[in-house]
Amino acid sequence: MTDPIADFLTRLRNAIMANHRVVEIPASNVKKEMTKILKDKGYILNYKFEDDGLQGKIKIALKYHPESKIPAIKDLKRVSKPGLRKYCGATELPRVLNGLGIAILSTSQGVMTDKEARQKHVGGEVLCFVY
């Protein structure tokens, strides 16, 4: 697999479009951190890390509106790709939908949102946009 983060986002996107409740994704440290951020920001209901002796799996419970069944995640966009990496300094961090969405960054201090990176005054690689 060339781009595991794009695979992570695509599996989430496909599960949401198919109205699935749970999606299973192969685990990695970056994906685990991204999942924690999605949970903290309220985009997913819950998650569970399963260790199967090999790579492990992440089970993610997706979040929908109780009556209208509209998903909490409207869109997931991969920004930095293996063929073209996108980096931002601390002063030029992107805003997603004027602050309504989040950008997930990989910085020297770990994986964090654009808002946390602004507070810590660090830049890094922009992994994806979520709104």
Count of β-strands:
8
Helical fraction: 25-40%
Number of helices: 3
Distance N to C terminus:
26 Å
- The whole-number mean of residue pLDDT values reads 96
In one word, what is the shape? globular
Low-confidence stretches: none
Largest sheet: 5 strands, antiparallel
List SSEs in N-to-C order: HEHEEEEEEHE
Estimated radius of gyration: 15 Å
Classify the secondary structure makeup into a structural class. alpha+beta
Q: What does this protein structure show overall?
A:
- This protein is α+β, with helices and mostly antiparallel strands and 131 residues long.
- It is 25% helix and 31% strand.
- The protein contains 3 helices and 8 strands, in the order H-E-H-E-E-E-E-E-E-H-E.
- The protein has helices at residues 4-17, 29-40, 114-120, and strands at 22-26, 44-50, 57-62, 76-78, 87-88, 102-107, 110-113, 124-130.
- Strands 4, 5, 6, 7 and 8 form a 5-stranded antiparallel sheet that branches.
- It is globular and about 40 Å long.
- The relative contact order is 0.18.
- The model has no long low-confidence stretch (mean pLDDT 96).
